[in-house]
Design goal:
mainly alpha, 9 helices, 0% strand, globular
Length: 226
């Protein structure tokens, strides 16, 4: 991990530090008793900076974040988020660890970027529709809060996780879209409980990291093609 940290550029270290500082400050202001939120958020922003570099370490940390986030979501009756992260995001992240280990680029720690075919996109979108349809009824059965945004979150989460597994730069665009949905979800939760505000800040930080991740992977893809 130390070598991976040394590999980060000055800009990446600044983004990481600012993201960690933002979630820590929000925790100290609004969520002093919710240590799970702080730990999970710090793991999350750390995971994203390494995923943006195409390092397997980022996916290992994503598995850890999924476990924390599942517990946090359960406490707010966001069963869709809990089921999505524990039953979908975390298992796919584990598969992604294996996939990325098998596909390093030119013997480096950087993963080999893959371009998805039109057929691949069509199959992925079809799978996303099926997953969303199935999960909607599961959420309805459990009485999930904020069904509309929770259902949209399932779609974006699946697309993001699947595209990460497939090593596509578009994973970051899907995660950025998911971040915006989650910001709305946690703003809704914070209207009745201000201790949820750190999660709003957390996913705002995630959004900026995922935007950078998309830029970074596009550069990676161009560099690897050369």
């Amino acid at each position: 991990m130390l070598q991976s940290i040394r590999d980060l550029t000055r800009g990446e270290r600044l983004l990481w530090i600012c993201s960690a500082a933002a979630v820590t400050a929000s925790f100290l202001l609004f969520g002093r008793e919710d240590w799970l939120t702080l730990i999970g958020s710090l793991i999350g922003v750390t995971a994203l900076i390494f995923v943006a570099r195409g390092y397997v370490l980022g996916q290992v940390l994503t598995v850890a974040f999924s476990l924390f986030y599942g517990v946090i979501s359960f406490g707010q009756r966001y069963y869709g988020e809990m089921i999505t992260y524990l039953g979908m995001t975390s298992p796919i992240a584990i598969l992604t660890v294996i996939s990325w280990l098998r596909h390093p680029y030119a013997g480096t720690r950087e993963v080999e970027v893959k371009r998805l075919s039109i057929r691949g996109w069509l199959l992925l979108l079809l799978a996303a529709g099926v997953v969303t349809w199935g999960f909607y009824y599961i959420l309805d059965f459990f009485g999930n809060a904020n069904m509309l945004f929770s259902t949209i979150s399932i779609t974006t989460s699946f697309l993001a996780s699947a595209l990460t597994l497939l090593r596509s730069p578009w994973y970051a665009a899907a995660y950025a879209a998911n971040d915006l949905v989650l910001i709305v979800l946690w703003i809704m939760a914070s209207t009745g409980d201000t201790s949820c505000l750190p999660m709003v800040v957390c996913f705002a930080a995630f959004f900026f990291n995922d935007v950078y991740g998309f830029i970074s992977w596009r550069r990676m893809a161009a560099r690897q093609r050369r």
